[in-house]
Amino acid sequence: MLSLDEVENIRQQLTVSLEAPDITYGLSRAFRCALKELDLYRNHFISRAQLAETPKNVIHPHVQIGGGNHRIEGFFNIDIVPPADLVWDIRESIPLSESSVELLFSEHFLEHIDYPRSVKHYIAELYRVLRSDGQVITGVPDAEIVLNAYQKRDCDLFATIRDRWYANRNCLNDFNTYLDLVNYVFRDQDDDEKYTPHLWAYDYEKVSNLFLQVGFKRVEPWEFNSKLGNPKRQWGSLYVIATK
Length: 244
Fold this sequence. Notes:
- The chain is of the alpha/beta class.
- Helices cover 42% and strands 16% of the residues.
- The chain has eight helices and seven strands; from the N terminus they run ααββββαβααααβαβ.
- It has a seven-stranded mixed beta sheet with strand order 3-2-1-4-5-7-6.
- It is flat.
- It starts with a helix and ends with a strand.
């Protein structure tokens, strides 16, 4: 792995390069993306060293992944950025023992990691850490809602999507056609300091297929429960529960 000194050296070089007056937009965009990944790498590197010193027999039966500020009482929270019980890059692994988790919850995380490499690796890791009959609840933005609205030219639903998801962002002037909104939902806001872009879109068929391919025996719709899910995420989201 790169050392923290090497990471900092790369960071400094990129930062200096971004200040060049004649740098192209394309290159500056790539450098900004690289700086974000360097931050995530540094978080993962530090936690990797700390994790190596923790007892190996600690079991966390209830786990949340990628919850950010949404904490669930009684759940062990894993995320790549603080606050979290464990700061970790889930794209690399889930640092939990095999067959140790009873219930795992995640919402609006899957669409932010790259498909197929990281997504399929993550789903396989879920299967590994879950106990027999263990379950994983996953929530994602429902792409089918948006595509149906596009096909029907449903202006009321598109206005609702725009106002619920994007009213507080700086992109409303870029919603000029129906397809613009589809693209924003599929990609979210790329090259934005605050928001992490969507990298893949999901409907019920696709999410179910991901779990069934690795061996989950059953995938069903999950009825939203505010004791687990974030009420701000409920509208426009698809939730499934997969059983190992």
